[in-house]
Amino acid sequence: MLLVDKWFHTINDIPMVCSLYSSVKSIREQYLEEEFLSVAQAAELYHRSRFNSVILPREEWREKTRLIIDAVPASEKEWLRAKLEWSNSPTLQNRLEELLDALEPTTSLFVADKLEFARTVKNTRNYFTHWDSRNKKKAASRANLYFVSETLMYLLAACLLVEIGFTSQKVAELFSRNHRIHNFRWNSDNPVSSKPGQVGESSYFSIRVGTDAEQKE
Fold first, then answer.
1. DSSP-assigned states of every residue in 114-134
2. pTM for the whole thing?
């Protein structure tokens, strides 16, 4: 099957993932928060489409919840049943961790700490979705949100390349030769990627790139 045919098959198979990804790529005037929420949703939908979306086997989960519900007073059963309805679904953080592992070695090009990155995406999505000030400190700062969002975009691009037939190893090779990705990874303000000379939060559009000597270390 030709790459173009595979691409159209992918669009038909996971349309919302492709639509969300394309909307961010084609409409660059979006607010950064809106862009982040779109790519986070696309990543979650991709995982739902391609990975196991339950924590326990369904029968085991049903039996477990039945035992828990049976143990509470009758007046609390309906409330507890509603609370447990989605208890067998992975959290966004769980989904991202599994996705990041599956995309190796591409993931390591962009993400120094997979657990921390997944946690940051989850906390930031929850903050923007529920707008609870108690979660603000856990969310990505304004200065870092660009890098978190763009990292998700590159990882989604990797997912789509895998869909049309590239191996993750080949995707990593292609990405490592891309000049724009090179600059993004070595931007000294990028808190997600791991490299010498990182300075953390600084000017939002800083484009300082590591020297050749630094990159060989």
1. HHHHHHHHHHHHHHHHH--GG
2. 0.80
